[in-house]
Write a structure and sequence with these properties.
globular, 5 helices, 172 residues, alpha/beta, Spore Coat Polysaccharide Biosynthesis Protein SpsA, Chain A, 5-stranded mixed β-sheet
Amino acid sequence: MADGELVTFIDGDDWVEPNYVDHFLEIFNDKDVDMVTCGFFNESENGKVKNKIAKHQTSIVGRDEAVKQIIKMTGTVMGYTWNKAYVRSIIDDNHLGFQTDLDLMEDQVFNVEYATVARKFYFDNIPLYHYISRKGSITQKFAMENVRDVGVARMKVYKTIRDSTRNEKDEI
């Protein structure tokens, strides 16, 4: 439903710093990139920050490094959509969307699919997003459905990377 040039996502129970959107706009205006990230605070419901904030770092990377950072289980990039901004035309032109059959990791699948069709990525770890970890949330519970979703998501990520690699070889 988005109709702007850029897209970002914010979960309903999280919050962002006042300059969250400006951060993305400034970098997209200054750099020729297809994705921009920011760092985040991982907070408990009572506001206690669980992660350590590292020294400010930025980098511009290509597809391979972007995919590596997206599928990593640690760091400031990871597979979330809420700490990133995207070029909407890349999403539209490649018919990208979210896997509706997954309750977990649909963000990571989307990000890997996006990364395999985008060119350059601006990674910034400045913490502008406040992710609230809630007890009892789907990401905190262990359930057999979650195990299935993780397996299905990992397989989709693997297939996306494999197919992208094959397409690149075919083009050469």
